[in-house]
Write a structure and sequence with these properties.
151 residues, mainly alpha, 73% helix
């Protein structure tokens, strides 16, 4: 094998591994097969509050109907679970009709972005614009503007 072929193989392998790591940490992404065993080992114990929360989040990810999503979100919050660090779900939560929820989600998104840079999903940007058009609350506009500037 030539020297060029040897040097290209580790780069491709490394790029593939990096790509799989990025998929692993992307919100709502399916766990790549190479990391499934590790994820199974660190998964919360079945029936534990952490497992119930993870199950509730997974159920919300799978819902396409907004009314069903809103209902699942309301049940999730009544159970006392914190907002997830999941850009996809947080973006969908911005479709909730209650201003208090919108303020809470926008505040969490801003904090989440400070801790881990958001990818700025097109759906998130569009929902921020919709929130600004639908709600009159100045606090919502202030938070939405702050988040928009950060993305």
């Amino acid at each position: 094998m030539s020297k060029d072929k040897k040097s290209k193989k580790p780069r491709r392998s490394s790029a593939s591994y990096k790509s799989d790591l990025e998929k692993l940490f992307q919100s709502g992404a399916k766990v790549p097969d190479r990391f499934q065993d590790v994820m199974n080992k660190i998964a919360p114990e079945e029936g534990s509050p952490e497992a119930q929360r993870a199950e509730a989040l997974e159920e919300m990810r799978e819902l396409d109907d907004m009314l069903a999503f809103k209902k699942a979100f309301d049940i999730y919050r009544k159970a006392g679970y914190a907002l997830p660090d999941d850009e996809y779900l947080l973006s969908r939560m911005l479709d909730h009709p209650r201003e208090t929820v919108i303020i809470e989600v926008l505040t969490h998104l801003i904090d989440f972005h400070r801790r881990q840079s958001l990818t700025g999903l097109p759906s998130l940007k569009a929902r921020i614009k919709t929130v600004m058009a639908v709600f009159d609350d100045p606090r919502i506009h202030e938070l939405a503007e702050e988040l928009s500037q950060q993305l």
